[in-house]
Design goal:
This protein is an alpha+beta fold. The chain has eleven helices and eight strands.
Length: 274
C-alpha cells in the first residue's frame, strides 16, 4: 500500500522530467519485487495449502547464501541461471561446473538467461536499481558484465567437450536472481544484506522456477557462442578483443575501452560474495 501511495503522490505532485522518471522507475521496480513475493505466498497459501512441502522451502540468511550457492554446482548434470549480470555465476558456479564435468567425464548442460545489454529500456531500469542501492551504475551497468559472463561461458564450452552451455539474452529484467541444479534452487536479490529462499529439489517451487526459466529462454535470443573463435583460449583478458565484442553484438563505439573493461572482469572475476 505504501508503494502504491508513493506512486500516486509522485504522479500528482512531481512534474515531468528526469527526477520523476527516476523516482517512477525505482518505485515501479520496488512494487514489482513486492508483488512477486506476495505472488509466491498467495500461490502457496491458497493453491497448495499447508503441507509437508513447507519443510522443502528454507529461508536462508545473508551470511549463508554463499555456502548454499557453492553446493549447487556439485555433482549435477544440469544447471540453470537467470539473473542480471552473472558476476557470481561466472566467478564460481561456472568454473566448478567445468571442473566437475572434466573430472567425471559426465555431460553437463548449462542454460544462462540474462537481460539484453543493448536494450535501452533494460539499461535504464537497471541503472536506477543500482543507483537506489548506492552503487556506481555508470552509463550502462549491464553491458560489460553481461558480455564478460557470455565470453566466460563461450570459452569453457568451446574447450570442454563435456560442458554444453547456451546463453540467452532476454527482453526482461528479473526482480530476483535464480541459480538452480539437481541439488535445489536458490532465489536471491542484488542486495547482499537481504536473505534468500532455498527450494529443495522436491519442492513445488523448484519445478515452477525451472519451468519459468526455460519458458523465458524459449522467448529470448540465443547467442552464437563462436566456438571456433574461442577454441584453445583461456579465461584471461586476452580472450576479449574488439572484434569478438562486435560479433557478440556490442555497440560499435568505444570498443577498445570496452574490451579492456570486459577483459579485466573475465580475468579478475570479482563478485558480491567475496
Amino acid at each position: 500500500m505504501l508503494c502504491v501511495a508513493a506512486i500516486y503522490i509522485e504522479h500528482q505532485f512531481l512534474g515531468d522530467g528526469a527526477v520523476k522518471d527516476v523516482v517512477d522507475s525505482v518505485l515501479t521496480n520496488l512494487l514489482s519485487s513486492i508483488l512477486v513475493v506476495l505472488g509466491f505466498y498467495t500461490l502457496y497459501t491458497f493453491f497448495i495449502g499447508p503441507n509437508e512441502g513447507l519443510k522443502e522451502v528454507v529461508p536462508t540468511r545473508p551470511r549463508d547464501i554463499q555456502e548454499v550457492m557453492e553446493h549447487l554446482p556439485e555433482s549435477t548434470r544440469s544447471y540453470l541461471f537467470w539473473g542480471r549480470s552473472g558476476s557470481y555465476f561466472r566467478s564460481a558456479p561456472l568454473v566448478k561446473l567445468d571442473e566437475f564435468s572434466r573430472r567425471t567425464k559426465i555431460m553437463t548442460d548449462v542454460d544462462v538467461v540474462m537481460p539484453d545489454p543493448t536494450d535501452a529500456r533494460l539499461i535504464r531500469s537497471y541503472h536506477d536499481i543500482k543507483a537506489s542501492l548506492g552503487e556506481d551504475a555508470g552509463e550502462n551497468p549491464l553491458l560489460a558484465n553481461v558480455l564478460a559472463t557470455t565470453i566466460c561461458c563461450a570459452v569453457l564450452s568451446a574447450n570442454n567437450k563435456y560442458l554444453r552451455v547456451r546463453v540467452f539474452y532476454s527482453k526482461f529484467l528479473p526482480a530476483f536472481r535464480v541459480d538452480m541444479s539437481e541439488q535445489g534452487s536458490i532465489l536471491t536479490q542484488d542486495d547482499r544484506s537481504k536473505g534468500a529462499l532455498f527450494f529443495k529439489p522436491t519442492s513445488e517451487f523448484h519445478e515452477m522456477l525451472r519451468t519459468s526459466i526455460l519458458n523465458e529462454a524459449s522467448v529470448s535470443r540465443e547467442l552464437d557462442l563462436l566456438e571456433e573463435a574461442f577454441r584453445g583460449q583461456k579465461l584471461n583478458a586476452k580472450v576479449c578483443t574488439p572484434d569478438i565484442l562486435v560479433k557478440l553484438g556490442a555497440p560499435a563505439s568505444g570498443l577498445s575501452a570496452l574490451a579492456q573493461e570486459v577483459g579485466n572482469l573475465i580475468e579478475t572475476r570479482q563478485h558480491r560474495y567475496k
